[in-house]
Automatic annotation (TrEMBL):
PROSITE patterns: HTH_MERR_2 (PS50937). The keyword Zinc-finger does not apply. Keywords: Activator, DNA-binding, Transcription, Transcription regulation. Residues 1-69 form the HTH merR-type domain. Pfam families: MerR_1, TipAS. InterPro entries: DNA-bd_dom_put_sf (IPR009061), MerR-type_HTH_dom (IPR000551), MerR_fam (IPR047057), TipA-like_antibiotic-bd (IPR036244), TipAS_dom (IPR012925). GO terms for molecular function: DNA binding; DNA-binding transcription factor activity. This is MerR family transcriptional regulator. The keyword Transcription regulation applies.
Amino acid sequence: MKVKEVADLVGISVRTLHHYDEIGLFKPNDTTESGYRVYSKNDLATLQQILFFKELGFPLKKIKEIMESPGFDRNEALEVQRNMLLEKRRRMDDMITMINKTIKNTKGEITMSEKEKFDGFDFSHNPYEQEARDRWGDNAVDDSNEKLGKMSKVQQKELGVEFDVIYKRLATLRHQQPESNAAQEGIDEWYIYLNKVGVYSLDAFKGLGQMYVDDDRFTKNIDKYGDGLAVFMRDAMAIYADNRK
């Protein structure tokens, strides 16, 4: 199949396929005498696996590293991807159930307790754990997991409530200068919170802030609290870290 046929089959743009080719992520085995890309069935299977990884939130650079590693096994990867998607579906189902109950609660059809309002949130699984390991090493992540593991479900849910409160406050401050007293007080709360669930040096804290902007997944989730919040937090976290070194 030629590139336009593959694009139409899969539902992605020709430009995306060209980009995958340019970065070495997905190159067809053959080309025509005229230089046009020709994709085989095996190429399409590879593309499918790339899109599974992408759906799970893996950045393209990481997908390339995984699929080029000597120990990569396609069938094993499919098993892992399936399990990850099943877990993602379970969590989404929990969230949908909670949203439906919340809608009924706001309409006065049912009454939800404060605890029930947060039953769908699950902080026991960190989707960015491997990325954190890659950036800061296993010790920081293991310390965080150990702290969380010692907490009860109630304590974990309380952390979820505190997380939400901190982010909502930061969202109200995002139009101020990141070096302002109010902004720095809000970021100080965030730094203290993170060190309740892990061990973050000032350098790691600053690096985390940069990731909020570099990684679209973080940016989208953070900016749900208010457009531009991720950039504001990055700048405020950098100032906070630099002022305390």
